[in-house]
Design goal:
Cobalt-precorrin-4 Transmethylase, domain 1, Methyltransferase, Cobalt-precorrin-4 Transmethylase, Domain 2, about 280 residues, single chain, 5-stranded mixed β-sheet, 3 domains
Amino acid sequence: MLILAATPIGNLADASPRLVEHLQHSHYIAAEDTRTLYKLAQALGIQVHAKTFSLHDHNEHERIQQLVEIAREHDLLVVSDAGMPTVSDPGFNLVRACAENDIPVTVIPGPSAVLSALAVSGLPTDRFTFEGFLPRKDGERRTLFEELLREQRTMIFFESPHRIHESLQVAVEIFGADRKASVSRELTKKFEHTERGSLEHLVSWAAEEPKGEMVVVIAGAAEELRDISTLVKDVLDLAETGIGLKQAVAEIAGITKVSKSELYQLALDARKSNG
């Protein structure tokens, strides 16, 4: 069978007894980086005797068939560098291939940066969406945020420390300065910290260049965004008084806390459709 095993995201004490047992006794292990695997084993005070295979984004497709054949006859343990395999890490295609070949797939649960950051964010946890790493390019990042502007679920993203300030600035432009959010850094490690507040507050906090891998959690759209057509009409009516569309958008957005960029675009679209 195929066995997906979660590894610590920081604190080695989070390595479960089942993980340790399988690392010690497995005959076949596929790891995102075999060097990281051996470092983990050394830190845990154990030895890995398995035949190991690298399984990362650049070789997953070409290695799948070999690993499927192993999993067909033996237990194959799969680990990523940190957290759960397949969650913004390699392994998804292998799981799908094993499922298509009727090979059992099971899991050794454990640490998850996604769920940990969500749990400590103070934002709604009943419905959420994980969007993975934010795009590196500004245009792609803006496009993603614009697509998620009316998303009502709590949103979770991964980001690097040298782009966190810029990404939060873009988030303010798209979601609005008052949208609630949090940033968790160094989860489970000695200097773990979660900063909570408005996106505007988080921009100020990130200006000090915090270090460590970041997990950004942003609240979903508020109730007023669910029926924004009324606000668009208010903008158009106000613009007709002679103050102009941009000023009308600024005034309506200011009293409703709706994103100016979205409201402006919707008002433009509405004006065009009305001829």
